[in-house]
Structures are given as C-alpha cells and as structure tokens.
Amino acid sequence: MEKNFWLERWEREEIGFHQNEINLHLRQYWQELHPAHGSEVFVPLCGKSRDMLWLREQGHSVLGVELSAIAVQAFFKENDYTPHRVAAEKFARYATDGIRILCGDFFDLGKGDLAQVGAVYDRASLVALPPEMRERYARHLASILPPATPILLITFDYPQPEMPGPPFAVSVNEVKSLYREHADIRLLAQLDVLAQNPRFQERGLSRLQENIFLLTLRNF
User: Fold this and answer.
1) Neighbour-count burial of 101, counting CB atoms closer than 10 A to its CB (0-12 exposed, 13-18 middle, 19+ buried)
2) Sheet holding 40-44: strands in order across?
3) Directed axis angle between helix 172-179 and helix 131-144, to 10°?
4) What is the count of structural domains for the chain?
5) What is the pLDDT of residue 10?
6) pLDDT tens digits, residue range 180-195?
C-alpha cells in the first residue's frame, strides 16, 4: 500500500476509521500495562485520534507519528491547541502541552526517536496495513522500542474476502506469528462486535471480532 493511498484518504476526508469518542477498550484495559505515571506513550499512525487526549489526561506525555499533515493539523486545531512546529530532515515535529506528533513515515523512525517511550497504544496502525507490510511493521516497531515496552494492541478479525481493507482482518494466530519472536503475548479479550458496527454490516460482513492484546517486548 503506497503512502499516497492514506494521503489521498485524508485529502478527500474519507476517514471512516476515525473515532470521535475515546476508545472503550483503551479505557478498560490500559491499566493492564501498568504504565508508570508520567511515562511517554507512543501512538503509531495516530491520525487525529482523541485517544491521545485521554492518555494525556492520565498523566502521560504522548508521542504520535502520522504521515498526513492534514491529520496532524486537524488534531491540534480541533482541540484548540497551537503547536510549536519544527521542520527536520525526515519529520515535521509538532508539540504542545505534553503531546508531540512527528509528521512523516513510520518506517523512518529510529531508536533515538522512541528512547523515552514507556508504553505503546496501537488501535489503528497494524490493522491499517495490508498483509505484505505487517511483518515489516512489527519487526521495525520491535527494533526501535526500548526493551520490555508493553503494547496495548487492538485488532479486527473477520472473513477477509467479505470486505476489502482497511481496516484489514488480523487474526489471533497472525498476531502470534508477527510478534512471538519479539514479545510475550497475552490475549486480554475477544469480543463479538458486529451488532455494534452497522457500517460493517452494510458492507456485508457476517462476523466481526475485536481482539485486545497485551504484548510485552522481551529484554534483548
């Protein structure tokens, strides 16, 4: 999937993946990570997610990465923030009140960018990627995070032939395959959510499940 796909989605405001409300699973399961108060939380492919506001309210600093400048600017504008912007070689850096967003390509991130990260929240990142990119994503994420970092990961699972992604179907077995070399994996919940998602019913899905994981990177 090319970068232009997502850039054009934001330009055309085709952002059905965006949630206006704070994610219920984030509220319910965040403490399973035992995050230290004040620790930095990394939100990959963050868009203009309001979940970053909730994480900030819990006392965390927040670091997001997002490809679309439209999404980044919309986040700050819609939440009445005036960020300080600094252009660098690979990223434009926006920052204000404990929230920083790097505008650029996730795969350009290095260890130095995430050196202070204490936890990760991935609701819309892994499921946004087609199969051929997911292994690269998981490998890169694991390689740039500090050892023992916990990750709250939320995925969708449904019969992929019934609907083209994104969001893509990512099964429990695929999560285990992607991360078993890098992390300890704990499945926190499996939820049948088709009835709560009429837009997916309209797209023809016969089954829709959300899986919530706690991944803990190993100490190496």
Assistant:
1) buried
2) 84-87, 92-96, 99-103, 61-66, 40-44, 117-122, 150-157, 209-217, 183-192
3) 50
4) 2
5) 64
6) 999 999 999 999 999 9
Q: Is residue 29 part of a domain?
A: no
Please check whether residues 113 and 133 belong to one and the same domain.
Answer: no
Please tell me whether residues 3 and 108 are part of one structural domain: yes
Looking up residue 63, the CATH number of its domain turns out to be 3.40.50.150
Q: What is the pLDDT of residue 12?
A: 72
Give the pLDDT confidence score for residue 4 in this predicted structure.
74
Q: 97-129: per-residue pLDDT in tens?
A: 899 999 999 999 999 999 999 999 999 899 999
Whether cis (ω within 30° of 0) applies to the bond prior to 167 is yes
Q: Provide the residue range defining the domain that includes 102.
A: 1-7+37-121
Low-confidence ranges of the chain (pLDDT < 50): 18
Tokens of 179: 């991360």
Give yes or no: residues 84 and 70 share one domain.
yes
Nearest to 22 by CA among 57, 73, 61, 60: 57
Residue 3: both structure tokens together = 């970068």
Asked whether 113 and 90 are in contact (CB, 8 A), the reply is: no
Three-state secondary structure call for residue 127: helix
Out of 64, 99, 121, a domain closes at: 121
Residue at a domain's end among 106, 121, 136: 121
Q: What is the model's pTM? A: 0.94
Contact 186, 213 (CB under 8 A): yes
